């Protein structure tokens, strides 16, 4: 039996872009079942993935996470983070994990942390290529062994299932590598019986947070509700409104 309504607090368009504390507090007043944030994007291009560094500032990421984790742990609300470190490779996961552990030490917090890896070994990719199990998306060229060998880092984009498994294993905080942006928001709702299409559509809006509002902002919170046959979004800052546009 699903809840009458599942509630999600999306803090910011990308972890480290910031959000007003007042907006976050408004979201917490609505008793969310999940606090979630997308931490990355392909928009900055491949450099940050290959270099193994984040395009977001460490202090800014820590500030956002500290507010989210302290509130979530105190209230027993799960926290989900996708595409850690901006690109979701192994060094990005490690970088973000260190920040989370630092926050836990400094605030004397104890919680179950799930790490979901997304980086794939080159030998695995070569094997799949040899079995004709890899095809390119137009207009990209077909993948070759030479391209695989010359590539620094390869990540796969995960959907909701790894998040669902982590939630069911009792994770309080989930830190994932490269993930489909809406999956971070949709997974827990899907695991509790809500419609995959509705949850994914809502997640696609929430992953950009208040960009969907007027005036839009990537540095402000947004709240989402999902029911058995609908979803809705609500800005948490009084200067913003959500319209059909």
Q: Quick recap of the structure?
A:
With 245 residues, the chain is of the alpha/beta class.
Task: Offer a few descriptive terms.
245 residues, seven-stranded mixed sheet, single chain, 9 helices, alpha/beta, 13% strand
Secondary-structure map with pairings?
Blueprint: E1 6-10, H1 21-29, E2 34-38, H2 47-51, H3 58-75, E3 79-82, H4 90-106, E4 113-116, H5 122-130, H6 145-150, H7 161-168, E5 173-176, H8 183-191, H9 196-206, E6 222-226, E7 231-235
Helix pairs in contact: 3-4, 7-8, 8-9
Describe what you observe in this structure:
The protein has 245 residues and is α/β, with parallel strands linked by helices. Helices cover 38% and strands 13% of the residues. It has helices at 21-29, 47-51, 58-75, 90-106, 122-130, 145-150, 161-168, 183-191, 196-206, and strands at 6-10, 34-38, 79-82, 113-116, 173-176, 222-226, 231-235. A seven-stranded mixed sheet has the order 4-5-3-2-1-6-7, sandwiched between helices. Helix 8 runs antiparallel to helix 9 (196-206). It is globular. The chain starts with 5 loop residues before the first strand and ends in a 10-residue tail after the last strand.
